[in-house]
Design brief:
By secondary structure, the chain is an alpha+beta fold. It has one domain: Methylpurine-DNA glycosylase (MPG) (3-methyladenine DNA Glycosylase, Chain A, Roll). It is built from five helices and eight strands; from the N terminus they run E-H-H-E-E-E-E-E-H-H-E-E-H. Strands 1, 2, 3, 4, 5, 6, 7 and 8 form an eight-stranded antiparallel sheet that branches. Strand 5 and strand 6 form a beta hairpin. It binds a DNA duplex through strand 4, strand 5 and helix 4.
Length: about 220
DNA sequence: AATGTGATCCTCT
DNA sequence: GAGGATCACATTC
């Protein structure tokens, strides 16, 4: 059966209804215009920003990957709009959450003009706040280093799943948002090759915070 | 640190 | 019906 939140026509009306009290982490919400640029420009600028939940969990974004719609064979949107990827074709600044490998959820923020199907996959967070809740959400993990070190790990730690598909990360009224707490992105540097894909491997569209111990992948993949 | 394997089910062809 | 924007654990170096 199709997950209700991936239903093309209903995804907007099926969002979490509860009114946000406040997003705990202090910082400035990113403006809509921040996301309204090509994903390869947005992605590295997203490093060192903070993904925060209204329930108190928050983590600094230390690794991202860009996916560029119609020109990118590794993008879910490469072959056009489907119920699953509909959110990515929607307005920038929303969260596209997908299910993969039969058991994992991953989160992107839609970036670029509406209709282009582009986005940025959040690949790793440095836990900042609500760490006890993250541990509770991932009871089998021994080291705090592994709480959010990987795209499916961080969604589990933050409590993100299909129910959050389509949330508006800009409004700060949907329970999750991305804020700027004053830390600048790392100095510009060339992107790494992307991980975990079978096509489109040649595009250097993965960026991380150099030297940060919460970045995913092997040493060779981190550089 | 690198490699191999099993888990598990949705999505589109 | 095939494969996937992955993780956890075991093994080996």
């Amino acid at each position: 059966m199709q997950h209700p939140c991936t239903n093309n026509t209903n995804w907007r009306t099926r969002l979490v209804k509860k009114k946000a009290t406040s997003i705990i982490w202090p910082g400035t919400p990113l403006p809509r215009a921040f996301f309204d640029r090509v994903a390869t420009k947005v992605a590295p600028q997203l490093l060192n920003k903070v993904l925060a939940s209204e329930d108190g969990r928050a983590g600094r974004i230390v690794e991202v990957e860009a996916y560029l719609g119609a020109i990118d064979p590794a993008a879910h949107t490469y072959r056009g709009k489907t119920p699953r990827n509909a959110v990515m074709f929607g307005p920038p600044g929303h969260m596209y959450v997908y299910f993969t490998y039969g058991m994992h959820w991953c989160a992107n923020c839609v970036s670029g003009p509406e209709g282009d199907g582009c986005g940025v996959l959040i690949r790793a967070l440095e836990p900042l706040h609500g760490i006890e809740q993250m541990r509770a959400a991932r009871p089998r993990v021994a080291s705090d280093r592994d709480l959010c070190r990987g795209p499916a790990r961080l969604t589990q730690a933050m409590g993100i799943n299909g129910a959050q598909n389509g949330l508006d990360l800009v409004s700060a009224h949907d329970g999750f948002t991305i804020v700027d707490d004053g830390m600048a992105p790392p100095k510009a540097r060339a992107g790494n090759l992307r991980i975990g894909i079978s096509v489109g491997k040649d595009f250097p569209w993965r960026w991380n915070v150099p030297g940060n111990r919460y970045v995913s992948g092997t040493t060779a993949q981190r550089r």
